[in-house]
Task: structure prediction
Amino acid sequence: MGRTGHSAGLTTAREAGLVACRRCGQVEVISAPHCQRCGSALQSRDERSLQKVWAWLIAGMIVYIPANLYPMLITRSLGHTSDSTIFGGVVELVELGSYDIAFVVFFASVVIPIGKFIAIIYLAISVQRRSILNMHQRHKLYEVIEFIGRWSMIDVFVVAILSALVQLDSIATINPGIAAVSFALSVLFTMLAAQSFDPRLIWDASRNTE
Result:
């Protein structure tokens, strides 16, 4: 198989009249409506895949904006209230000399989400344009997006733990800000966008150019 992913000489499952269940992997004849193993509905291709990808992705990008503008943490200590955004928290960590923690927070809260937006947009556009370039690399990129999706929640986990542990009535309390909810929704929506993407569409372009 060449570098462009051209699949000359190979027969796909679809051409052989077979379809694999996306839930359990069971292979059935393409005319079967449901998987005999797990009962899931079978579909050779999700024809509405890109529509769902764009819908979830746009929703995720919209809620990511307030996640960066509004406070992630609201701290009350001895009558004094302070709040910090994601980027503000990174700056404070740098000023305190906690460069490693600042890097982790910045990477998980800024680099990964934005990188996922760009990667999903690239995959969706390449499929829409029926590109046959870098097909193996695009499939690997999709697998990476699927794998790292849940790790973007690190900020939300930290906020939840701090909110649960630091509740000392009038002495000190830590509560999540509206940004925590927005950030969690953004991560959820981008995960749904990635799961809605049908990676089999990447390979269809090569079959149509033969």
About this structure: Residues 99-128 form the longest helix (30 residues). Residues 1-8 have pLDDT under 50 and may be disordered. DSSP finds seven helices and five strands in the chain. The helical segments are 49-69, 86-95, 99-128, 135-148, 154-165, 178-196, 200-208.
